[in-house]
What does this fold into?
Amino acid sequence: MLKNKKLQTILKDRDKKRLFENFFSLLVLQGMNYILPLITLPYLVRVLGPEKFGLIAFAQAFIRYFNILTDYGFNFSATREISIHRDNKNKVSEIFNSVMIIKFGLMIISFLILLFLVFTIPKFRNDWLVYFFTFGMVFGNVLFPIWFFRGMERMKYITILNIIAKGIFTVSIFIFIKEMADYLYVPLINSIGFLVAGGLSLRIVSKDFGIKFILPSFKAIKHQLKEGWHIFISTVAISLYTTSNTFILGLFTNNTIVGYYAAAEKIMRAVQGLLGPLSQTVYPHISKLASESKERALNFIRKLVKIVGGISFVISFSIFIFANFIVNILLGPQYQQSIIVLRILAFLPFIIGLATVYATLFLLGFGYIKTWSRIIIGSSVLDIIFVLIFVGIFPLAHIGVSISWVLTEICVLVLSYLYYKKYSYAYR
It folds into this structure.
């Protein structure tokens, strides 16, 4: 009995140490992931101006749909399977190869769709090089198996490789972007960084983890497609009120208006991204913990609510108060229209932070994938309705899009909390 208790204590201490290491790695990653772009942001928005900056933001929003397609639902479904089977090397190899084959197939489909759209729609055809250069991000993203490293709880690799990608982008921006006419180099440089990180990641998977690149069975591929389907549908729905807001704004307005909105949005995502390491680190841990003890997993979630809620509220309140100062320092006088956008979006870190705990960590971690999917899809439908209403009501469309995003995230939070209360009651 004493030996068993001692073993349990050792395992708990090991889990805590691994969680801390993973959290620290992802904290550094997210810090560099968003701090490095914030270093280049003030330079880029001033050199390119709202119009060209808006064009690049619109192209990234458009290409992000292909990232969503190639990611399928693997960032959650494959992460969960890898975390559960990580001690079984043969099973891990089967999962890895099945997912990679699917992703490469989806990338080829994505490129064919891009070719068709770019050469048939004038809005895209006029700036076709921007879209082709930006598509390199999709290729790099396919090569980089973040889901594998998360499932293995080896976040340091994600940290190192992403810093390499962002570092290449940051240094190159200051070297090659000197005037507005250099705007084409921005998506090209960004894609090169992603491709380098992706290539290095495959080498690490092979060398450090001993994963062999073999052809998996059709049954294994079919299983991964089935596992990721509901999350994929929900991820598409999520894009309706994140990526699609920028994309729709660009379709109905112009690149300058997109530039005002995108500049403020990048600041918000930078701040919001600092909370990302918590969910990314904890998700595989809770998935495994929930399979062993639902009560322990719930106690862990309750503690997270207090931590995430407190930290994110302070961050959101500070952004709201200092929005004017932040925009003037980071964006400059050309972007005064971005101040109101930043103030509207200010409380997103607080709202999304809590929603992540209840929706991603609880619902997905405990296996309520269909419920999570229904919440996201339902909220996305509301977002489309909000966008159509508010863009028509407000003379400045970027303000309407900002309000619709906040209202949609509130819906996600409320619905996920209600389901959390309903489902968690059974485990108390």
